[in-house]
C-alpha cells in the first residue's frame, strides 16, 4: 500500500524563545525538521514526503537543505491560518488512495515500531492513534477545589495519527471547530471510531528548550 507522510510544521517557536521557528532549530547537528522527515524514510524508503509550511518559510527550508546537503524529495504545500487548515491543505494535495501519516514536524523521535503499529492498524481498521499510558498521578480541577481521578482511564496522545487517505479527506470536509484539537477528533466527529495503538514515550513534541535538550540526549544515545 502506498504510504504518505504529511508533516505539518507551522510553528513560530514563541515558547522556545528562539529567533527561528522551532522546526528549524539545530538539534544534534541539523534542523529538527530533517530528523523528523528521516524517521519516515528509515521506516520505508519509498514513502512520499509532503511538508506543510507557511509560505514565507519555503525559501528558508530550501536554503537549509542546501546548507545541510539534505536531498530527500519533499513536496512543499502552503499551510493555512490554523493547524486544521494546514492539514486540510496537505490532504487536498494528495491524489489517489493510500495510508497517510499526519505528523508534527517537531516530533523527531517517533520510532519504527510506532510507525509499523500505525500502518498495520490503518490497513486493518482504517485509522490509528498512537498513545501511551499516563504515569503521573492526575487531579481534576473543580469549582470546589480538585479531586483525584484514575489515571488508568486516560492515555497521552501522539502523532503520527494515521488514516486511509479517502477517509480522513472526507472527515476534513467538515467546518472547522474549536473542538478539533487533533486529526483524530476531526475523524471521530465524522462518525468514525478511533483505534488506539502503542506509541513510544520518547516521541516528544519539542516545544520548550528543555524538550530540545531531552531530544538531543535521546539522539546521541541512538548514535
UniProtKB/TrEMBL annotation:
Keyword Transferase carried by entry: yes
GO MF annotation: an example: 2-C-methyl-D-erythritol 4-phosphate cytidylyltransferase activity
EC number, as in UniProt: 2.7.7.60
Site annotation Transition state stabilizer: residues: 15, 22
Entry's transmembrane regions: none
GO biological process terms held by the UniProt record: isopentenyl diphosphate biosynthetic process, methylerythritol 4-phosphate pathway
Cross-referenced CDD domains: CDP-ME_synthetase
Catalytic activity: 2-C-methyl-D-erythritol 4-phosphate + CTP + H(+) = 4-CDP-2-C-methyl-D-erythritol + diphosphate
Keyword list, A-Z: Isoprene biosynthesis, Nucleotidyltransferase, Transferase
Pathway(s) the chain acts in: Isoprenoid biosynthesis; isopentenyl diphosphate biosynthesis via DXP pathway; isopentenyl diphosphate from 1-deoxy-D-xylulose 5-phosphate: step 2/6
Annotated site residues (Positions MEP for the nucleophilic attack) in this chain: 151, 205
Annotated function: Catalyzes the formation of 4-diphosphocytidyl-2-C-methyl-D-erythritol from CTP and 2-C-methyl-D-erythritol 4-phosphate (MEP).
Family: Belongs to the IspD/TarI cytidylyltransferase family. IspD subfamily.
Name of the protein: 2-C-methyl-D-erythritol 4-phosphate cytidylyltransferase
Organism: Sunxiuqinia elliptica
Gene, per the UniProt record: ispD
Amino acid at each position: 500500500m502506498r504510504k504518505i507522510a504529511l508533516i505539518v510544521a507551522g510553528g513560530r517557536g514563541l515558547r522556545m524563545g528562539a529567533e527561528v521557528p522551532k522546526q528549524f532549530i539545530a538539534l544534534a547537528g541539523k534542523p529538527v525538521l530533517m530528523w523528523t522527515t528521516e524517521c519516515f524514510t528509515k521506516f520505508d524508503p519509498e514513502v512520499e514526503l509532503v511538508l506543510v509550511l507557511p509560505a514565507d518559510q519555503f525559501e528558508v527550508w530550501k536554503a537549509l537543505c542546501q546548507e545541510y546537503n539534505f536531498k530527500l524529495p519533499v513536496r512543499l504545500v502552503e499551510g493555512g491560518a490554523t493547524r486544521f487548515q494546514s492539514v486540510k491543505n496537505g490532504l487536498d494535495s494528495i491524489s489517489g488512495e493510500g495510508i497517510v501519516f499526519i505528523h508534527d514536524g517537531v516530533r523527531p523521535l517517533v520510532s519504527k515500531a510506532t510507525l509499523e503499529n500505525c500502518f498495520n492498524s490503518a490497513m486493518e481498521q482504517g485509522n490509528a492513534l498512537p498513545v501511551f499510558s499516563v504515569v503521573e498521578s492526575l487531579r481534576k480541577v473543580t469549582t470546589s477545589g480538585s479531586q483525584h481521578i484514575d489515571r488508568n482511564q486516560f492515555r497521552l496522545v501522539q502523532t503520527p495519527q494515521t488514516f486511509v487517505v479517502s477517509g480522513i479527506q472526507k472527515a476534513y470536509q467538515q467546518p472547522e471547530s474549536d473542538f478539533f484539537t487533533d486529526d483524530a477528533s476531526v475523524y471521530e466527529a465524522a462518525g468514525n471510531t478511533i483505534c488506539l495503538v502503542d506509541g513510544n514515550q520518547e516521541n516528544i513534541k519539542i516545544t520548550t528548550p528543555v524538550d530540545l535538550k531531552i531530544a538531543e540526549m535521546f539522539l546521541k544515545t541512538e548514535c
